[in-house]
Design a protein that fits this description.
heterodimer, A: 230 residues, mainly alpha, two-stranded antiparallel sheet, 9 helices, 2 strands, 63% helix, B: 220 residues, alpha+beta, five-stranded mixed beta sheet, 5 strands, 52% helix, elongated
């Protein structure tokens, strides 16, 4: 497989995106991120989502939706175009939301307050979707911008496991909390960015291969498709 | 050919000159015009804030106390608390309104609201530290919330209950209801000049720059 990639990268990548695996993988990864954020961090560990965080959830849902639609039948161009549009839109918006959250996070944890805006008390979702009304548990921001520390309500008895993990994240979510290394925004920007890069490359390879096939059909063997030059 | 170059250079110079003077601030990036202006707010700088907002806390610690003394003399500083944010936004507004009027009755001017004499400041800071530093959420209910502020200024619950029914307090709270439409635009804190122009906090790069912008908007 890797050998194929080296000798004929465009067509190999195009073949990959015709298969179900990568689409399912992207959908599962996106759903995993959202469920982790909601069920584990928000519900179990009392880390409340902020305005940007609920936008980031929407972005992951868009990618999951795109992945599922394309995975129904990846060789169907219609389904695949819908899949690409949703996933590219989601990952692109995700990058922007994450960059904004990272700026807010920086301002909130330093005295460098200039250049960022406070959070709005009401989220405004793309296309004016009232997601926070439809599903407050998933989309209503209850946390403060730039802060994701666990806030344990009075009278809640934590299990020893919950206690240990909430203590671990006492200063907020970091990939490695003791060193404050990699805040949530930085981690999501990398996730969205890598997926976006993959999507754009895969879509481009698909289009190039399609064009080549069409050319090959009309001009026969004289086509100048990448990978066939050799 | 040479004349052509001269014309271009001249026009560039003109653009640069204009950019340096009249176009110093732009609507849409530095400030926005409120669709629904705040009534009776000519000659004021209104600051919309909420106890439940980390940036308000940061602004109240680092920026607003340094900004208020630099404001032009004919501009009155007025704090507005937003009642729709935070679980106890309504109770917070009531207490802050009572304390602001008490401050005014004690002879404090709008410029004194960031001095140690101000009861409003004492209560506000008590809420900020409890909520943001100690992560207090007052799950026991509104009375627990009120206690934090009342203790900070040494007021009893009975005194507060009596004071909050004062018609002046009610009138002030009614004025503060305008906060919601301001906060909706870009969140809190929100600074509004003459009830009409909302400063985009994102474009503020220094306190002096903010004063400059306020001065420009004031005369608009």
């Amino acid at each position: 497989m890797i050998g194929n990639l080296r000798s004929d990268p465009v067509r190999t990548i195009s073949q990959w995106q015709d298969k179900r695996f990568l689409w399912v993988f992207m959908a599962v990864l996106s759903l995993f991120m959202v469920i982790l954020a909601h069920s584990v961090f928000q519900i179990w560990l009392y880390m409340r989502p902020c305005e940007q965080c609920v936008y980031i959830r929407l972005a992951f849902f868009a990618m999951a939706f795109g992945g599922i639609v394309a995975a129904i039948n990846p060789s169907n161009p219609g389904l695949k175009i819908v899949g690409y549009l949703c996933a590219i839109w989601g990952s692109f918006k995700g990058v922007l939301y994450s960059i904004k959250l990272n700026k807010i996070h920086h301002a909130a944890h330093s005295d460098d307050l200039f250049g960022v805006q406070g959070c709005s008390p009401e989220p405004t979702f793309p296309f004016h979707l009232p997601l926070d009304k439809w599903s407050p548990e998933w989309f209503k921001p209850t946390g403060d911008c730039g802060y994701d520390n666990p806030i344990i309500p009075d009278g809640v008895q934590l299990s020893s496991m919950q206690k240990a993990i909430t203590d671990f994240y006492a200063d907020g979510w970091y990939l490695w909390p003791p060193a404050h290394f990699g805040n949530m925004a930085q981690c999501t920007v990398i996730t969205f960015g890598v997926i976006l890069l993959f999507l754009v490359v895969a879509a481009a390879c698909w289009v190039v291969t399609l064009v080549c096939k069409r050319q090959a059909a009309t001009q026969d063997a004289s086509s100048t498709c990448p990978g066939r030059l050799a | 050919m040479f004349r052509f170059v001269k014309i271009i250079v001249k026009s560039f110079a003109l653009v640069a000159l204009l950019a340096g003077t009249s176009f110093a601030f732009t609507e849409g990036t530095d400030y926005v015009k409120l669709a629904k202006p705040i009534p009776n707010a000519q000659g004021t700088l209104i600051k919309v804030f909420s106890y439940d907002c980390p940036f308000c806390y940061k602004y109240d610690k680092k920026i607003t106390p340094n900004l208020v003394p630099k404001l032009p003399g004919d501009l009155k500083f007025r704090p507005f608390h937003l009642k729709t944010k935070g679980k106890y936004g309504v109770q917070g507004s009531e207490l802050f309104a009572v304390l602001l009027l008490k401050d005014q009755k004690a002879g404090l001017s709008d410029r004194d609201l960031y001095t140690e004499k101000s009861l409003l400041k004492k209560a506000k800071m008590a809420y900020y530290t409890a909520y943001h530093d100690k992560k207090e959420r007052w799950d026991a209910g509104p009375d627990a919330y009120l206690k934090t502020g009342l203790d900070a200024v040494g007021m009893t619950k009975a005194e507060f209950d009596k004071a909050k029914n004062d018609p002046q307090v009610k009138a002030l709270l009614k004025e503060w209801d305008a906060s919601y439409d301001v906060a909706k635009v870009q969140g809190v804190p929100g600074f509004v000049v003459n009830g009409k122009y909302l400063i985009m906090t994102k474009s503020i790069t220094s306190i002096d720059g903010m004063v400059k912008l306020i001065n420009e908007l004031k005369t608009k």
